[in-house]
Structure formats: structure tokens, C-alpha cells
Amino acid sequence: MSKLLNNLDPLPRATLSEQVAKQLASRITAGDWKPGEKLPSEAELCKALGVGRSSLREALTSLAFIGLIRVRAGGGSYVAETPSAYFTSSWLHSGTLNSEQALVEFAEARLILETELAGICAERITDAEIDELNALVEKMRDSTNRPDEFWKLDLSFHIIMGRAAKNKVLDNILIGVRDQMRDLISKSLLVQEGMEQAVVQHSRVLDALRQHNPQKAREAMRQHLQSFQRGYKVLFAGGHGED
Fold this sequence. Notes:
- The protein starts with a helix and ends in a 6-residue tail after the last helix.
- The chain is mainly α and 243 residues long.
- The chain is globular.
- The protein has a two-stranded antiparallel sheet.
- Helix 8 packs parallel to helix 11 (192-210).
- Helices cover 67% and strands 3% of the residues.
- It has helices at 2-6, 16-29, 42-49, 53-65, 85-88, 100-124, 127-141, 147-164, 168-176, 178-187, 192-210, 214-237; strands at residues 69-72, 76-79.
- The protein has 2 domains: 2-82, Arc Repressor Mutant, subunit A, CATH 1.10.10; 90-228, Up-down Bundle (Four Helix Bundle (Hemerythrin (Met), subunit A)), CATH 1.20.120.530.
């Protein structure tokens, strides 16, 4: 184990989480850790990579999202025992976002739009709308083994937030790009681990909305969307978005 950790290079401060995710992914795909094997502890990985726990945890979340690892609450992270659908299907070449460039650009635009929308929503959302979102999160929690149902609930969560922001322009923008959002979200939920992570992250957004805390809502939404972005970048860096 210590020999493998010696092969991990300290990273520059810029884009730490993304770089951590890419380096760990390259080690996993190279076979340094076998399917089902537990990764080194967070403390060991942080020391080997020269990063803090927050950067490492963001990276691990992204790797879980694309199905490279499984994160067990209180039990560490393990290399996935079976290949993710991201590595066994032509997921990128279907739907409206059918190229790497289109996917990256739309994810970037969504990050800009929905992060600010979350802050506005926190100020204006009603108790009835909070109850509506809460019901969706509970349904999502019960649907992590049914991807076709889950992504529809996920999409509804974001569309309702657009309505709850009480800004017709923002609401119309979200409705106008609903097909692209549907495509992006459905691509994002090909593995159960990704859906489970999405439930956790949507719950954090909902908690911030319930508190009517704009800053907390923006940060929760930003972290949610960035975990997906990092996951895509890992896939593209490794060439896994190709047929």
C-alpha cells in the first residue's frame, strides 16, 4: 500500500479537486487498486497528494458519480467491482448533448445560472413549494434503483426551483432548455452511486432553502453541479466518452 502511495504526486493548488480526481482515476484504471479493494484512508491520501480533506472528498464524490468507486458511510471508499455504464455504453453520443463540447458548455452555463437562481429561490420560496421539493427528494430517495424514474424527479426538482424564484425570465430560460437539462441529468444518473450522491446533494440544497439562506443555497447548488462537472472531465481525460 505504501509503495502505491509513493507513486501519487503532490498537486498544485489550482483546480485541486479536479486534479485529485484525475490522478486517482488514472491509478484505478491502471489497476493499482483492484475491483472491490478499499482505497487508502483519507489521511493517507491527503498526505500523499498534499491536499486537504475537502478537496479529497469532492474528488471522491466525483469518482463515485461516474461509478469508479463506491463510498460507504463511515466505511471508506472502495473500487467498484463491476464496470460503470459510463465505460460500457455510448452514453455521450445519444440525446441532444451528443458531443464533449456541447456537454461541457451546457454544464458550465447551468452552473452559472442555477447557482444564482438557488440564492434567489432561498429568499422567495414559499412553505408550500418547500413541501413540494421535500416530497420530490423523498421520492428520489426511494427510486435510486430505478434510473428512468429518478432522473424525472431530479429534473422536476430544478424546474420547481425555477418557478419558486419568482422571476419569469429565469423560469422561462429553464423551461426553454428543459430538453437539454433532461439529457444532461439522465446522463448523470447511469449508476446507483451517482443517484445516491444526488439525493444527498439535493437534500443539502433543500435544507438551505428551508432556512431561507441564499449564501448556503448557492454553495450547496454549486457543489452539486461541480461534482458532475469534475466527473465528466475525468471521463474525457481518460477517453471514456468515446465509443
